[in-house]
Amino acid sequence: MRKIIVLTVLALAVAAPTVAFADSSLDAVNADIAKLTSDVQAKHDTVVADATQLQSDATSLTGTSDKQTARATIKADATKLTSDWKSLLAVCLADRKQLRTDIQAAKSDDKAANRQLRLTVKQANLAIRSTNLDMRSAVAKARAAVVAMRASFQAAGQQAPSVPTPTTTP
To answer: Regarding predicted confidence, which is higher, 23 or 69?
Structure first.
């Protein structure tokens, strides 16, 4: 009888830190998901604002007579959009890398905990994909507006600006 009690106490002493570790690692994963989600939302808000600005500038410049001004404005907006997207993408990729590391650390032999972990990650992934699709939709609308602006210049019969070509050596 005494052996059973000692073995039970020993088993509980070994299992208690494992359960506490699983909870803390799951908390780390949840914290990483919250950080990644907030960074993705910040990227979404910034890129959508830049794309909306590009779209409104392209729409307002459609059919104007000053092609050089239009080109400079669109180029500045596109450069801002691209630089914001790339800089915020780097932040999100770093968050994803940290999340992957914490997910690997959180995996355990407990199937119920692994199922909960998988469900949490899947829900976060779906939310992030939805946000990214909305952001890409805004960028696609901006691109369409720029294409329409370019088409209006061609329809007006304006010549493309001349670009000097390098000379070739014989």
So the answer is: 69
For 12-76, the DSSP string reads: HHHHHHHHHHHHHHHHHHHHHHHHHHHHHHHHHHHHHHHHHHHHHHHHHHTT-S-HHHHHHHHHH
In angstroms, how far is CA 154 from the centroid of its own chain? 35
Give the residue extent of every domain in the chain: 22-150
Nearest CA-CA partner of 49 in 80, 89, 90, 87: 80
Pairwise CA distance, residues 114 & 106, whole Å:
8
* Number of neighbours of residue 118 by Cβ within 10 angstroms: 12
Q: What is the pLDDT of residues 95-140, one digit of tens each?
A: 999 999 999 988 888 888 889 889 999 999 999 999 999 999 999 9
Question: Residue 13: is its pLDDT beyond 80?
Answer: no
